[in-house]
Amino acid sequence: MRTAGGGLREHHKARRRSRILDATRELLRESPETVLSTERIAARAEVSPATVYNLIGPREKIWEALADGFMDELERCLADLSTDDPREVVRSTVRLFVGDPVVSRRMVRGWEESGLVLDRSPLGRLRRAMAGARAQGVLRADVDTEALAAVVSAACVGALHQWVAALIDDDRFLARALFALDVVLAAAAADPYREQLSAPLRTRKAL
Predict the structure, then answer these.
(1) pLDDT tens digits along 6-63
(2) Residue 77, class by beta-carbon neighbours within 10 Å (0-12 exposed, 13-18 middle, 19+ buried)?
């Protein structure tokens, strides 16, 4: 059983860790191209450099921790949705990144495994949304909804990296992510819904 002292220590560690990540975000927003160092982060967070290393790790782990923070926030946003509409899941995901562009761009550029950034969320919510659409007869009964969700998630990651590289703007980031979703839904549509789910593809503007 965890002792009261142990619980308090964990609480203090969590608070220091949160302070370190908040300090990192502040430094990035103040100077988007700043070179992060353990010493600068520690000074801003008012902890020792050793604390930064012990609670989070080297720079690669800092980017990973920032990515986890984005996904924590996304999960809170998705939990507030009153619908499992996959379009709202995609929109919420894009809004999260474009809402904090400096930090999200640096995190994606700096983290070697940034291709995994959406594996925790929204992938889980997309899986549920796709499974729900199949159960309601909107999608064909024979489709693999987990594979469909994975395709949409991968397309969103691709659009995210294009946006990070400034190849597309915020609007095109959203448009390309939604386009991938519409293609998947149209391809998997049950006959009664085929016309409805194919319609967005015919009216799609240039991406």
Answers:
(1) 688 888 899 999 999 999 999 999 988 888 889 999 999 999 999 999 999 988 899 9
(2) middle
Q: Residue 122: is the preceding peptide bond cis (ω within 30°)? A: yes
Torsion of CA 93, 95, 96, 102, to 10 degrees: 130
Question: What's the whole-model pTM score?
Answer: 0.87
User: Left, alpha or beta for 85 (phi > 0: left; psi -120 to 50: alpha)?
Assistant: beta
The pLDDT-based confidence of 65 (bands split at 50, 70, 90) is very high
For 158, the token pair is 């691709």
Non-local CB neighbours of 31 within 8 Å, separated by 6+ positions: none
CA distance 171 to 24: 27
List b or e across 111-141, with b for residues whose CB sees 16 or more CB atoms inside 10 angstroms.
Answer: beebeebbeebbbbbbbbbbbbbbeeebbee
Return d(Cα 60, Cα 197) in angstroms, integer: 41
CA angle 156–157–158, rounded 5-degree value: 90
How far apart CA 108 and CA 185 sit, in angstroms, is 28
Per-residue pLDDT tens digits for 154-178? 999 999 999 999 999 999 999 999 9
Could you give the CA distance from residue 93 to residue 87 in angstroms, rounded to a whole number? 10
Which token pair is 65? 């921790």
